[in-house]
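#lab-general

N.A. 3:47 PM
ok so I finally got the sequence cleaned up, no stray characters, all 291 residues accounted for. can someone with queue access submit it? mine expired

B.Y. 3:52 PM
send it over

N.A. 3:53 PM
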Amino acid sequence: MAAEDRLIKKANIAKVRELDFAQLFAENIDNLVKMLGITRKIPVTAGTVLKVLKVTGTLQSGSVAEGDIIPLSQYATTWTPIGEATLKKWRKATSAEAIMKGGYDQAVNDTDAKLIRDIQKGIRSDFVTFLATGTGSASGDNLQAALADAWGQLQVLFEDDDVQTVFLLNPLDVADYLAKAQITTQTAFGFTYVENFLGLGTAILTGAIEQGTFYATAAENIVLYYIDANESNGLGEAFDFTTDPETGLVGIHEDANYTRMQFETVAIAGIDLFAEKLDGVVVGTIGDVES
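B.Y. 4:20 PM
back already:
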């Protein structure tokens, strides 16, 4: 006898699980975007050259006598390539023995969740590594003085914009302060952050930054480029990945490999998070943390 119509089959459950992971990843990215105050989330194709911007020039005096020629103020825009947008690929396999020993949820679902967290960790780490190449500098004898110096420099660098300052710091540099202040911490994309920290901006805490060092930039300077896994040069026509319907930030596919008797999860994503203007990124150093 044939199966009933609308029967929920194993394949349907797998698709739902894939979609859950894809949507969770997209939601986490959305939380990251909100936390950083990112206003530009731009889809690109694989191979797109990613560049950072630098504008140089000198404003000439505006004091011009009647009838005299107004001197030209000359500016130049330089784009420096920093790499290409690349679709990254990850794979995880769970043996039949591991599934029998720990059960499906523990052996497959829990490790899938860990896979997604590790992918997010890699994106965070790449962003921090990029910020270390910033050309601005700031320092102070204590936490507040150092952050205030960076904040002031960013107000000058982006004086024509109403900027929101973002700081990335090592948690150990702010632990004493947080222990004594009534501050609410939040989490997004694996980051712990504090809004309106010291009245200067959003403080994002991560152990990926060396103690005594911090990075600061304007939220308006941060750009998120991503490859749409749904529309990546015909990739969707050749492979069956489940993505979040709106952005295609990540693709997930699960399948059984009967040759090896293992259950495999493949994930793809191409996300690049960086600051567009390197001279708009301040690398700061902290003296003794304020007590």
